[in-house]
Design goal:
By secondary structure, the protein is of the alpha/beta class. It contains twelve helices and 13 strands. The strands form two sheets. It has an eight-stranded parallel β-barrel with strand order 1-2-3-4-5-6-7-10. A four-stranded antiparallel β-sheet has the order 9-8-12-11. Helix 3 packs across helix 4 and helix 7 packs parallel to helix 9. The chain binds 2-acetamido-2-deoxy-beta-D-glucopyranose (3 copies).
Length: 407
Protein backbone atom coordinates (compact mmCIF):
# COMPACT_ATOMS: atom_id res chain seq x y z
CA UNK A 1 0.00 0.00 0.00
CA UNK A 2 2.74 2.42 0.90
CA UNK A 3 4.37 1.67 -2.44
CA UNK A 4 1.16 2.50 -4.30
CA UNK A 5 0.91 5.82 -2.44
CA UNK A 6 4.50 6.74 -3.21
CA UNK A 7 4.04 6.03 -6.91
CA UNK A 8 0.81 8.02 -7.04
CA UNK A 9 2.39 10.91 -5.14
CA UNK A 10 5.41 11.12 -7.42
CA UNK A 11 3.10 11.09 -10.46
CA UNK A 12 1.37 14.16 -8.97
CA UNK A 13 4.63 16.10 -8.66
CA UNK A 14 5.49 16.16 -12.35
CA UNK A 15 2.03 17.33 -13.45
CA UNK A 16 0.90 20.84 -14.22
CA UNK A 17 -0.16 23.23 -11.46
CA UNK A 18 -3.78 24.32 -11.02
CA UNK A 19 -5.14 26.12 -14.08
CA UNK A 20 -1.79 26.05 -15.83
CA UNK A 21 -2.13 26.58 -19.59
CA UNK A 22 -0.76 24.04 -22.06
CA UNK A 23 3.03 23.80 -22.40
CA UNK A 24 4.66 26.80 -24.05
CA UNK A 25 1.52 28.96 -23.83
CA UNK A 26 1.09 32.35 -22.16
CA UNK A 27 -2.28 33.83 -21.15
CA UNK A 28 -2.83 37.52 -21.89
CA UNK A 29 -5.18 39.00 -19.31
CA UNK A 30 -6.65 42.47 -18.82
CA UNK A 31 -7.62 44.51 -15.77
CA UNK A 32 -10.11 46.94 -17.28
CA UNK A 33 -11.71 50.04 -15.77
CA UNK A 34 -15.46 49.54 -15.82
CA UNK A 35 -16.31 52.35 -13.42
CA UNK A 36 -18.72 55.08 -14.45
CA UNK A 37 -16.57 57.83 -12.94
CA UNK A 38 -15.75 60.06 -15.88
CA UNK A 39 -13.31 62.13 -13.83
CA UNK A 40 -10.92 59.16 -14.00
CA UNK A 41 -11.14 59.25 -17.82
CA UNK A 42 -10.71 55.50 -18.23
CA UNK A 43 -14.15 54.26 -17.18
CA UNK A 44 -16.93 52.57 -19.13
CA UNK A 45 -14.81 49.62 -20.22
CA UNK A 46 -16.12 46.04 -20.29
CA UNK A 47 -14.67 42.64 -21.13
CA UNK A 48 -16.55 42.62 -24.44
CA UNK A 49 -15.10 46.00 -25.43
CA UNK A 50 -11.58 44.78 -24.60
CA UNK A 51 -11.97 41.74 -26.85
CA UNK A 52 -13.50 43.85 -29.63
CA UNK A 53 -10.56 46.26 -29.54
CA UNK A 54 -7.91 43.54 -29.56
CA UNK A 55 -9.57 41.14 -31.97
CA UNK A 56 -8.66 38.27 -29.60
CA UNK A 57 -10.50 36.58 -26.75
CA UNK A 58 -8.52 37.63 -23.70
CA UNK A 59 -7.76 34.58 -21.53
CA UNK A 60 -8.47 36.11 -18.13
CA UNK A 61 -10.05 39.23 -16.65
CA UNK A 62 -9.04 40.82 -13.41
CA UNK A 63 -11.50 42.38 -10.95
CA UNK A 64 -11.20 43.28 -7.28
CA UNK A 65 -13.17 43.46 -4.04
CA UNK A 66 -12.52 43.90 -0.32
CA UNK A 67 -12.58 41.29 2.45
CA UNK A 68 -14.98 41.61 4.17
CA UNK A 69 -17.01 43.13 1.35
CA UNK A 70 -17.38 46.90 1.43
CA UNK A 71 -19.82 49.04 -0.51
CA UNK A 72 -17.85 51.50 -2.66
CA UNK A 73 -20.20 53.73 -4.67
CA UNK A 74 -17.35 54.92 -6.89
CA UNK A 75 -16.77 51.33 -8.05
CA UNK A 76 -20.22 50.93 -9.62
CA UNK A 77 -21.02 49.17 -11.89
CA UNK A 78 -17.85 47.04 -11.49
CA UNK A 79 -19.05 46.17 -8.00
CA UNK A 80 -22.54 45.36 -6.74
CA UNK A 81 -24.15 47.28 -3.90
CA UNK A 82 -22.76 44.79 -1.37
CA UNK A 83 -19.22 45.38 -2.66
CA UNK A 84 -18.89 42.05 -4.48
CA UNK A 85 -17.69 42.08 -8.08
CA UNK A 86 -20.42 42.41 -10.71
CA UNK A 87 -20.09 39.39 -12.96
CA UNK A 88 -22.28 41.11 -15.59
CA UNK A 89 -19.22 43.19 -16.50
CA UNK A 90 -17.81 39.97 -17.94
CA UNK A 91 -20.23 40.11 -20.85
CA UNK A 92 -17.83 38.82 -23.49
CA UNK A 93 -19.33 35.35 -23.89
CA UNK A 94 -16.11 33.34 -23.53
CA UNK A 95 -14.68 30.91 -21.01
CA UNK A 96 -12.04 33.44 -19.87
CA UNK A 97 -11.07 32.90 -16.25
CA UNK A 98 -11.62 35.38 -13.45
CA UNK A 99 -8.51 36.72 -11.70
CA UNK A 100 -10.01 37.94 -8.45
CA UNK A 101 -7.86 40.35 -6.47
CA UNK A 102 -8.93 40.54 -2.83
CA UNK A 103 -7.77 43.35 -0.54
CA UNK A 104 -8.30 42.43 3.12
CA UNK A 105 -9.35 45.24 5.44
CA UNK A 106 -7.39 43.60 8.25
CA UNK A 107 -5.60 40.34 8.97
CA UNK A 108 -8.22 39.47 11.60
CA UNK A 109 -11.11 38.78 9.23
CA UNK A 110 -13.57 36.35 10.84
CA UNK A 111 -14.48 32.89 9.58
CA UNK A 112 -17.92 33.79 8.29
CA UNK A 113 -16.51 36.53 6.05
CA UNK A 114 -13.89 34.11 4.67
CA UNK A 115 -16.57 31.47 4.12
CA UNK A 116 -18.64 34.00 2.16
CA UNK A 117 -15.66 34.51 -0.16
CA UNK A 118 -15.26 30.74 -0.54
CA UNK A 119 -18.93 30.32 -1.46
CA UNK A 120 -18.73 33.20 -3.93
CA UNK A 121 -15.77 31.51 -5.66
CA UNK A 122 -17.62 28.19 -5.76
CA UNK A 123 -20.66 29.89 -7.37
CA UNK A 124 -18.51 31.55 -10.05
CA UNK A 125 -16.84 28.24 -10.86
CA UNK A 126 -20.28 26.61 -11.10
CA UNK A 127 -21.26 29.29 -13.61
CA UNK A 128 -18.41 28.13 -15.87
CA UNK A 129 -15.41 30.33 -15.08
CA UNK A 130 -12.11 29.29 -13.55
CA UNK A 131 -11.09 31.41 -10.58
CA UNK A 132 -7.66 32.64 -9.55
CA UNK A 133 -7.54 34.24 -6.12
CA UNK A 134 -4.87 36.91 -5.81
CA UNK A 135 -5.07 37.38 -2.09
CA UNK A 136 -3.62 40.40 -0.29
CA UNK A 137 -1.14 41.44 -2.98
CA UNK A 138 1.83 43.83 -2.72
CA UNK A 139 2.15 43.02 0.97
CA UNK A 140 5.82 44.02 0.95
CA UNK A 141 5.08 47.68 0.22
CA UNK A 142 3.64 50.27 2.62
CA UNK A 143 0.52 51.39 0.70
CA UNK A 144 -1.87 48.73 2.10
CA UNK A 145 -1.36 49.34 5.84
CA UNK A 146 -4.33 47.09 6.70
CA UNK A 147 -2.24 44.03 5.90
CA UNK A 148 1.21 44.97 4.63
CA UNK A 149 4.53 44.61 6.42
CA UNK A 150 3.24 42.18 9.09
CA UNK A 151 4.87 38.97 7.85
CA UNK A 152 3.95 36.56 10.67
CA UNK A 153 0.30 37.66 10.82
CA UNK A 154 0.16 37.74 7.03
CA UNK A 155 1.28 34.13 6.67
CA UNK A 156 -1.16 32.92 9.35
CA UNK A 157 -3.98 34.80 7.61
CA UNK A 158 -3.03 33.40 4.20
CA UNK A 159 -2.95 29.81 5.41
CA UNK A 160 -6.31 30.20 7.14
CA UNK A 161 -8.01 31.66 4.05
CA UNK A 162 -6.39 28.96 1.91
CA UNK A 163 -7.84 26.26 4.15
CA UNK A 164 -11.38 27.68 4.15
CA UNK A 165 -11.53 28.50 0.43
CA UNK A 166 -10.02 25.25 -0.84
CA UNK A 167 -12.29 23.33 1.56
CA UNK A 168 -15.31 24.74 -0.29
CA UNK A 169 -13.86 25.41 -3.75
CA UNK A 170 -10.80 23.18 -4.25
CA UNK A 171 -10.36 24.34 -7.86
CA UNK A 172 -9.47 27.93 -6.89
CA UNK A 173 -5.84 28.72 -7.74
CA UNK A 174 -4.10 30.81 -5.07
CA UNK A 175 -1.81 33.53 -6.44
CA UNK A 176 0.88 35.02 -4.23
CA UNK A 177 2.00 38.39 -5.56
CA UNK A 178 4.35 40.91 -3.91
CA UNK A 179 5.39 44.18 -5.58
CA UNK A 180 8.57 44.43 -7.66
CA UNK A 181 11.66 46.13 -6.32
CA UNK A 182 11.88 49.49 -7.98
CA UNK A 183 13.67 52.53 -6.64
CA UNK A 184 11.53 52.61 -3.47
CA UNK A 185 12.31 50.63 -0.36
CA UNK A 186 9.98 47.64 -0.36
CA UNK A 187 10.77 44.67 1.88
CA UNK A 188 12.33 41.63 0.31
CA UNK A 189 9.93 38.92 -0.82
CA UNK A 190 11.04 36.07 1.47
CA UNK A 191 9.44 37.04 4.82
CA UNK A 192 5.97 36.90 3.23
CA UNK A 193 6.21 33.48 1.55
CA UNK A 194 3.25 31.42 2.84
CA UNK A 195 4.83 28.08 1.84
CA UNK A 196 4.69 25.98 -1.32
CA UNK A 197 1.72 23.95 -0.06
CA UNK A 198 -0.44 27.09 0.16
CA UNK A 199 0.40 28.71 -3.16
CA UNK A 200 -0.48 27.60 -6.71
CA UNK A 201 0.94 30.50 -8.74
CA UNK A 202 3.60 33.07 -7.93
CA UNK A 203 3.75 36.54 -9.40
CA UNK A 204 4.71 40.17 -9.06
CA UNK A 205 3.33 43.60 -9.93
CA UNK A 206 5.72 45.37 -12.29
CA UNK A 207 5.60 48.79 -14.00
CA UNK A 208 7.63 50.87 -16.41
CA UNK A 209 7.54 54.55 -15.46
CA UNK A 210 11.21 55.37 -15.95
CA UNK A 211 14.70 54.30 -14.97
CA UNK A 212 15.27 53.64 -11.26
CA UNK A 213 17.97 56.33 -11.22
CA UNK A 214 15.46 58.94 -12.49
CA UNK A 215 12.93 58.61 -9.65
CA UNK A 216 10.67 60.58 -9.08
CA UNK A 217 9.63 59.98 -12.64
CA UNK A 218 8.59 62.96 -14.74
CA UNK A 219 9.81 62.17 -18.27
CA UNK A 220 8.50 59.87 -21.02
CA UNK A 221 11.28 57.41 -21.99
CA UNK A 222 11.37 54.17 -23.96
CA UNK A 223 11.73 51.00 -21.91
CA UNK A 224 14.93 49.03 -22.45
CA UNK A 225 14.27 45.65 -24.07
CA UNK A 226 15.72 43.85 -21.02
CA UNK A 227 13.66 45.81 -18.46
CA UNK A 228 11.12 43.13 -17.51
CA UNK A 229 13.76 40.42 -17.49
CA UNK A 230 15.99 42.43 -15.14
CA UNK A 231 13.09 43.07 -12.74
CA UNK A 232 12.02 39.42 -12.69
CA UNK A 233 15.54 38.21 -11.95
CA UNK A 234 16.49 41.14 -9.68
CA UNK A 235 19.33 42.54 -11.78
CA UNK A 236 20.78 45.95 -10.96
CA UNK A 237 20.48 48.86 -11.70
CA UNK A 238 16.70 48.53 -12.24
CA UNK A 239 15.93 46.09 -9.41
CA UNK A 240 17.32 44.99 -6.06
CA UNK A 241 19.35 41.78 -6.11
CA UNK A 242 16.30 39.70 -5.20
CA UNK A 243 15.71 37.08 -7.87
CA UNK A 244 11.96 36.44 -7.67
CA UNK A 245 11.90 33.98 -10.53
CA UNK A 246 14.68 31.76 -9.15
CA UNK A 247 13.50 31.96 -5.54
CA UNK A 248 9.86 31.08 -6.14
CA UNK A 249 8.92 30.04 -9.69
CA UNK A 250 12.00 27.89 -10.28
CA UNK A 251 12.66 26.64 -6.78
CA UNK A 252 9.08 25.51 -6.17
CA UNK A 253 8.21 24.82 -9.80
CA UNK A 254 5.24 27.21 -9.72
CA UNK A 255 3.76 28.96 -12.76
CA UNK A 256 4.74 32.64 -12.84
CA UNK A 257 2.31 35.49 -13.54
CA UNK A 258 2.93 39.21 -13.93
CA UNK A 259 -0.12 40.13 -11.85
CA UNK A 260 -0.45 43.70 -13.06
CA UNK A 261 1.73 45.59 -15.45
CA UNK A 262 1.88 48.55 -17.82
CA UNK A 263 3.96 51.44 -19.02
CA UNK A 264 2.79 54.73 -17.55
CA UNK A 265 2.74 57.28 -20.36
CA UNK A 266 2.74 60.74 -18.79
CA UNK A 267 0.03 62.96 -20.27
CA UNK A 268 0.44 65.95 -17.93
CA UNK A 269 1.66 67.03 -14.54
CA UNK A 270 -0.51 68.39 -11.73
CA UNK A 271 0.29 71.05 -9.19
CA UNK A 272 -1.79 70.31 -6.06
CA UNK A 273 -1.28 73.83 -4.68
CA UNK A 274 -2.36 75.81 -7.72
CA UNK A 275 -4.46 72.94 -9.15
CA UNK A 276 -2.90 73.70 -12.51
CA UNK A 277 -2.47 70.87 -15.02
CA UNK A 278 0.55 71.35 -17.32
CA UNK A 279 1.44 69.46 -20.46
CA UNK A 280 4.44 67.09 -20.44
CA UNK A 281 6.47 66.31 -23.55
CA UNK A 282 5.41 63.01 -25.14
CA UNK A 283 9.09 62.17 -25.70
CA UNK A 284 9.25 59.26 -28.14
CA UNK A 285 5.43 59.22 -28.33
CA UNK A 286 2.81 57.11 -26.65
CA UNK A 287 2.63 54.16 -29.05
CA UNK A 288 6.43 53.82 -29.27
CA UNK A 289 6.71 53.93 -25.50
CA UNK A 290 3.96 51.34 -25.02
CA UNK A 291 5.46 49.03 -27.61
CA UNK A 292 8.99 49.28 -26.14
CA UNK A 293 7.66 48.14 -22.78
CA UNK A 294 5.44 45.31 -24.04
CA UNK A 295 8.33 44.06 -26.17
CA UNK A 296 10.32 43.72 -22.95
CA UNK A 297 7.69 41.12 -21.91
CA UNK A 298 6.82 39.44 -25.20
CA UNK A 299 10.19 38.60 -26.71
CA UNK A 300 12.00 35.34 -27.43
CA UNK A 301 14.63 35.92 -24.71
CA UNK A 302 12.03 36.24 -21.97
CA UNK A 303 10.12 33.19 -23.20
CA UNK A 304 13.33 31.13 -23.35
CA UNK A 305 14.80 32.34 -20.06
CA UNK A 306 11.58 32.07 -18.04
CA UNK A 307 9.74 28.89 -19.07
CA UNK A 308 7.45 29.13 -16.01
CA UNK A 309 6.14 32.52 -17.25
CA UNK A 310 2.51 31.68 -18.04
CA UNK A 311 0.29 34.75 -17.68
CA UNK A 312 0.35 38.56 -17.68
CA UNK A 313 -2.28 41.22 -16.88
CA UNK A 314 -2.36 44.57 -18.63
CA UNK A 315 -3.41 47.35 -16.24
CA UNK A 316 -5.76 49.27 -18.54
CA UNK A 317 -6.33 52.44 -16.55
CA UNK A 318 -5.66 56.15 -16.33
CA UNK A 319 -4.39 57.32 -12.99
CA UNK A 320 -3.15 60.46 -11.26
CA UNK A 321 -0.29 59.51 -8.91
CA UNK A 322 2.73 61.44 -7.61
CA UNK A 323 1.12 64.50 -9.24
CA UNK A 324 1.48 62.99 -12.70
CA UNK A 325 -1.41 62.04 -14.95
CA UNK A 326 -0.38 58.68 -16.37
CA UNK A 327 -2.20 56.74 -19.03
CA UNK A 328 -1.29 53.09 -18.52
CA UNK A 329 -3.64 51.88 -21.24
CA UNK A 330 -2.04 50.14 -24.19
CA UNK A 331 -5.23 49.35 -26.10
CA UNK A 332 -7.37 52.50 -26.25
CA UNK A 333 -5.69 55.15 -28.42
CA UNK A 334 -5.58 53.90 -32.04
CA UNK A 335 -1.78 54.00 -32.48
CA UNK A 336 -0.97 52.09 -29.28
CA UNK A 337 -3.74 49.62 -29.97
CA UNK A 338 -2.32 48.94 -33.42
CA UNK A 339 1.18 48.42 -32.00
CA UNK A 340 0.13 46.17 -29.12
CA UNK A 341 -2.38 44.05 -31.00
CA UNK A 342 0.28 43.67 -33.71
CA UNK A 343 2.74 42.38 -31.12
CA UNK A 344 0.14 39.94 -29.74
CA UNK A 345 -0.58 38.77 -33.28
CA UNK A 346 3.12 38.09 -33.85
CA UNK A 347 3.22 36.03 -30.65
CA UNK A 348 0.01 34.28 -31.64
CA UNK A 349 1.54 33.23 -34.96
CA UNK A 350 4.46 31.73 -33.02
CA UNK A 351 1.92 29.65 -31.10
CA UNK A 352 2.66 31.36 -27.79
CA UNK A 353 -0.74 32.78 -26.86
CA UNK A 354 -3.52 30.96 -24.99
CA UNK A 355 -6.81 32.72 -25.78
CA UNK A 356 -10.25 32.05 -24.33
CA UNK A 357 -12.78 30.03 -26.29
CA UNK A 358 -16.10 31.61 -27.07
CA UNK A 359 -18.62 29.91 -24.77
CA UNK A 360 -21.04 28.98 -27.52
CA UNK A 361 -18.31 27.25 -29.51
CA UNK A 362 -16.76 25.26 -26.67
CA UNK A 363 -18.76 22.06 -26.98
CA UNK A 364 -19.05 22.19 -30.77
CA UNK A 365 -15.34 22.63 -31.50
CA UNK A 366 -13.57 20.71 -28.74
CA UNK A 367 -11.50 17.87 -30.11
CA UNK A 368 -11.77 14.27 -28.94
CA UNK A 369 -8.62 14.76 -26.87
CA UNK A 370 -10.21 17.70 -25.09
CA UNK A 371 -13.33 15.75 -24.20
CA UNK A 372 -11.74 14.50 -20.98
CA UNK A 373 -11.70 18.03 -19.64
CA UNK A 374 -15.28 18.80 -20.62
CA UNK A 375 -16.93 16.23 -18.38
CA UNK A 376 -18.87 17.91 -15.58
CA UNK A 377 -16.39 17.23 -12.78
CA UNK A 378 -13.32 18.34 -14.66
CA UNK A 379 -14.72 21.16 -16.80
CA UNK A 380 -14.68 23.58 -13.90
CA UNK A 381 -11.05 22.75 -13.22
CA UNK A 382 -9.77 23.28 -16.68
CA UNK A 383 -11.48 25.26 -19.42
CA UNK A 384 -7.96 26.50 -20.29
CA UNK A 385 -7.41 23.14 -21.97
CA UNK A 386 -4.81 21.66 -19.64
CA UNK A 387 -5.26 17.95 -20.07
CA UNK A 388 -2.76 17.21 -17.32
CA UNK A 389 -4.88 19.08 -14.77
CA UNK A 390 -7.75 16.75 -15.58
CA UNK A 391 -5.39 13.83 -15.13
CA UNK A 392 -4.20 15.31 -11.86
CA UNK A 393 -7.75 15.36 -10.53
CA UNK A 394 -8.19 11.73 -11.47
CA UNK A 395 -4.91 10.77 -9.79
CA UNK A 396 -5.90 12.79 -6.72
CA UNK A 397 -9.15 10.81 -6.67
CA UNK A 398 -7.21 7.53 -6.78
CA UNK A 399 -4.91 8.69 -3.97
CA UNK A 400 -7.97 9.66 -1.96
CA UNK A 401 -9.47 6.21 -2.56
CA UNK A 402 -6.26 4.43 -1.55
CA UNK A 403 -5.99 6.59 1.57
CA UNK A 404 -9.58 5.87 2.56
CA UNK A 405 -8.97 2.13 2.01
CA UNK A 406 -6.00 2.35 4.37
CA UNK A 407 -7.94 4.08 7.13
C1 LIG B 1 -18.61 57.04 -20.10
O1 LIG B 1 -19.97 57.06 -20.47
C2 LIG B 1 -20.66 58.27 -20.08
C3 LIG B 1 -22.13 58.07 -20.40
O2 LIG B 1 -22.30 57.55 -21.68
C4 LIG B 1 -20.03 59.46 -20.79
O3 LIG B 1 -20.64 60.63 -20.37
C5 LIG B 1 -18.54 59.52 -20.46
O4 LIG B 1 -17.89 60.53 -21.20
C6 LIG B 1 -17.86 58.18 -20.76
N1 LIG B 1 -16.50 58.22 -20.28
C7 LIG B 1 -15.48 57.72 -20.96
C8 LIG B 1 -14.13 57.82 -20.33
O5 LIG B 1 -15.61 57.18 -22.03
C1 LIG C 1 -17.85 38.72 11.20
O1 LIG C 1 -17.57 40.06 10.88
C2 LIG C 1 -18.66 40.73 10.22
C3 LIG C 1 -18.18 42.10 9.82
O2 LIG C 1 -17.21 41.98 8.83
C4 LIG C 1 -19.86 40.78 11.14
O3 LIG C 1 -20.94 41.38 10.47
C5 LIG C 1 -20.24 39.37 11.55
O4 LIG C 1 -21.25 39.42 12.52
C6 LIG C 1 -19.03 38.63 12.15
N1 LIG C 1 -19.40 37.24 12.36
C7 LIG C 1 -19.07 36.59 13.46
C8 LIG C 1 -19.54 35.17 13.52
O5 LIG C 1 -18.42 37.09 14.35
C1 LIG D 1 20.03 45.93 -19.66
O1 LIG D 1 20.25 47.04 -20.50
C2 LIG D 1 20.86 48.17 -19.89
C3 LIG D 1 20.98 49.26 -20.94
O2 LIG D 1 19.73 49.68 -21.36
C4 LIG D 1 22.19 47.81 -19.28
O3 LIG D 1 22.70 48.90 -18.55
C5 LIG D 1 22.03 46.60 -18.36
O4 LIG D 1 23.30 46.17 -17.90
C6 LIG D 1 21.34 45.47 -19.10
N1 LIG D 1 21.14 44.33 -18.18
C7 LIG D 1 21.68 43.14 -18.42
C8 LIG D 1 21.40 42.08 -17.39
O5 LIG D 1 22.32 42.88 -19.41
Amino acid sequence: MRFVLAVAASALCVLAAKLEPADGKVVFGVWFDGTADTSIYSGNDTAAKVNDRLGFNVGSFQMWQSLPLEHKPEMAPLQNDDGSINMDMLNEGTDASLFLTVYPKSLAVNDSDILALANQCADIIKSGRNVFLRLAPEMNGDWFPAYSRQPAQYIAFWQKVHGVVTGVAPQVAFVWGPNYHGPSTQDTYDPYWPGADYVDWVGISLYWKGFARDWPWAVNNLSPINYTSDIISGVLPEAAEDNFYAKFAEKYNKPFVICETAAGFIMSSYNPTTKVVSPVSPGPGRAELQLSFWKSIFNDDVLRKYPRFKMVFAFEMYKREDNMDRDFRATTDPESLKAISGLLETMDKKGVMAWAKSSAATSATSSAADQVTTTKAVASVSPTASKSSGFKVQIAGIVGLVVSLLL
